[in-house]
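Hi F.,

I've been meaning to write this up properly since the lab meeting, where we talked about keeping a consistent format for the predictions we share between groups. The idea is simple: the sequence comes first, exactly as it goes in, then the structure tokens exactly as they come out, then a line or two of notes. No screenshots and no reformatting. I'm using this chain as the first example so we have something concrete to point to.
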Amino acid sequence: MLPRSASRFQSVSPSDNGSGSSPSRMPISSCRVPRGMSFLLCRLARGVGRRRPLVQRFLEHPVEIGRDADAAALESIIELEPVLIGIVPGQVCIGGVEDTILLMEELPTGGRLARSWAHLAETLDRLHASSQMAYGWDRDYGFGELLIENGPASNWVDFWADRRLRCHIPYLSSHLAQRIERLADRLGDHISQNPTPSLLHGDLWGGNILIYQDEISGLIDPACYHGDREVDLAMLSLFDQPPPIFYEACGLDQGWEARQPVYRLWPLLVHLRLFGGSYHQQTGACLEQIGY
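Output, unedited:
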């Protein structure tokens, strides 16, 4: 999860890529994600032929953020094959996970989201069609060193109030904390108690959507859990501006517009704790939009 204003990658020399634990493939390039993001990426060649390079990811804090959370999330999406061809093409695989290493095949990119909204709506419909009984996830994980709690719950209002709002209160200014507490206490007035517990991407923004030839080739860096599918759309609108045709294609339930700022508040709080700055004002404006 990164703000659009931040530089996403900073180059480092291949000698810093942790090659002592890597497969016996020659690194093409490597990069480190700055400002609280806890991994290093390395692009690996696969020898002769036309096979795409591998992307190797070295996690620096596997225990604190949930040791294999990324792998588990990706595996949950892959299990939906062959239905989700548009999300995870058949040639994509998780090559292996070893404590701090996640190995994946690189997907084609180069397209523009502005020309792919209809296909994104179709892709999300197929992702969100997978559901289970409880809200949440079977493990916690993190954005950088910020812990994200996902303990399962049978009530969606309780899950969102405790796992996505109240959990931030100790880290906020007293005034902002009081406003969050008031919203959490009356959250049942703003969101449904029992929406379908859809499989969510969990960190859906333009930088995590891969596009090739005007179609979605992959969704990367998932932070999966089960919840109201409108959560993914709220995160998407934080840095991107989906057109009306996208929301129409999603076929959302009545009142979805009013719920969007409630769900958008959570990524704003996460960004506030990670990056500070203007996110304090954005968080306050979002609360005002909800009426708090």
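Notes:
The first strand starts at residue 10 and ends at 11.
Residues 19 and 27 are 8 Å apart (CA to CA).

If this format works for you, I'll send the rest the same way.

G.
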